[in-house]
Amino acid sequence: MCLFDRVEVPWERLFLAGEWAEAAPMITNYTSQHRQTCIGARAGFGDLLIGAGALMTEANGLDLDTHYSLRDSMVELIKIVEGFYACGVAASVYGEGNAAGNITPEPVFANIGKLLLATQIYDMHRLAHHVSAG
Fold it and tell me: What percent of the chain has pLDDT over 90?
C-alpha cells in the first residue's frame, strides 16, 4: 500500500470527487465485467487441458473406452469447463445495455461463474494430471 501525502491533483483530473453514491454501481459494473472475462478465459484454458489430456491419454496408449477411471475424469473435466462457459454465455445473453451503449454482464451469472471457477480450478488441474498419467 502506498500513502501519498500532500499530492496536488488538478480538478479536471478528479474522478468521482465526493460522489460516493456512484461508487457502488461503478464497482458492480467492474466486477461483473471482470468476472465474466475471467470465467471466459478459464473456459478457454480448460479446453486446452481437455485437448492435452486427450492427447496424453492417446500418447500413453490408453483407450478411454476401456479405462473407465480416465473416461470419468475426462467427463468431469469437461463438465467443469462447460459450467464456466455456460455462466459466461448466460452473463452475456442476459446482460443489460446502458445509456452509453455498453452492455453490463448479468451480475448473478457472472458471480456464479466466478464462484465455480474459484472452487473448481484446482479440480481441473488435478483431473488434467490424472488423465495425463500423473
Answer: 56
CATH of 29-96+103-131, one of 1.10.730.10, 2.130.10.10, 3.30.2000.30, 1.20.140.10: 1.20.140.10
Report how far Cα 96 is from the mean position of its chain's Cα atoms. 19
Give, in degrees to the nearest 5, the angle at Cα 111 between 102 and 96.
Answer: 25
In 3D space, the residue among 106, 120, 134 whose CA is nearest the CA of residue 36 turns out to be 106
Per-residue confidence (pLDDT) for residue 98, from 0 to 100: 82
Helix (H, G, I), strand (E, B) or coil at 134: coil
Residue 79, H or E segment: helix 68-93
pTM score, whole prediction: 0.79
Q: What is the residue extent of each domain of the chain?
A: 29-96+103-131
* Residue pointed to by grid coordinates 465485467: 33
- Asked whether 91 and 106 are in contact (CB, 8 A), the reply is yes
Question: Can you tell me whether residue 14 is helix, strand or coil?
Answer: coil
Report how far residue 58's alpha carbon sits from residue 62's, in angstroms, rounded to the nearest whole number: 6
